[in-house]
Amino acid sequence: MAQALEHADLYARVVQENVTLRRELQARHRFANIIGGSRAMQEVFRLLERVIPSSAMVLIEGETGTGKELIARAIHYNGPRKEKRFVSLDCGAFPEELLESELFGHKKGAFTGAIRDKAGLFEYAEGGTVLLDEICNANPSVQARLLRVLQEGEIRRLGENEPRRVDVRVLCATNRDIEQEVEEGRFRKDLYYRLRGVRIVVPPLR
Q1: What are the backbone angles phi and psi of residue 57, rounded to the nearest 5°?
Q2: pLDDT tens digits, residue range 84-128?
Q3: Partner of 156 at 20 to 30 A CA spacing, among 20, 65, 176, 202?
């Protein structure tokens, strides 16, 4: 009995040491992959410290190649959802109907080629984080569905009538002037106001 208790105590200490070490490594390498010492990047780091522990919507803006996805990963992997999935999707990489299917899923027979039921990325990332890269490429239908996710915490698979509850943190990124997209009618104003909880502008590399 005493030996069993000793082993249990040793196991508990090892587990605690592993947890402590993991936390120290996370703190030490918190933004290790994000390079930049300029005043603009220091502002980015300041905003990251603020948004990481929160559930705030974050809109990441910057030119292509400035590390917007690295910013999103830092938010996820240092935040309260780090044990769950991080999923990134480029909204400009899919045709309109396929983009909706990828994000929200579909029911068998919902469209030509839908030979089985499929869960979308919002369901796949349950409890975690979804990064919608190049959000300005999302078509009006996707924008409307995304607004429902943000307002109601629900998705509806293509071909289904019943909504499904989802719990994900949504981050968005763009290399365009999203305010101009709104002014010119290509992006929903109500969705923009939802997404811009915290704006992180990543400075250009030059």
Answers
A1: -65, 140
A2: 999 999 999 988 878 999 999 999 999 888 899 999 999 999 999
A3: 176
The 8-class DSSP code of residue 156 comes to: -
pLDDT at 55 over 80: yes
The beta strands (E) that lie in the chain are given as: 58-61, 86-90, 129-133, 154-155, 164-165, 169-174, 198-201
- Mean pLDDT, the chain, integer: 85
d(CA 177, CA 71): 19
Domains of the chain by residue range: 1-32, 35-201
Instruction: Name the residue among 200, 206, 197 with its Cα closest to residue 45.
Output: 200
User: Domain spanning 35-201: which superfamily?
Assistant: P-loop containing nucleotide triphosphate hydrolases (3.40.50.300)
| Structure token pair of residue 173 | 């990124």
* Amino acid at site 13: R
Which residue from 60, 46, 198 is spatially nearest to 136, judged by alpha carbons?
Answer: 60
pLDDT per residue as tens digits for the range 134-153: 999 999 999 999 999 999 99
Contacts of 45 (CB under 8 A, 6+ apart): 31, 34
Structure tokens at 19: 């947890």
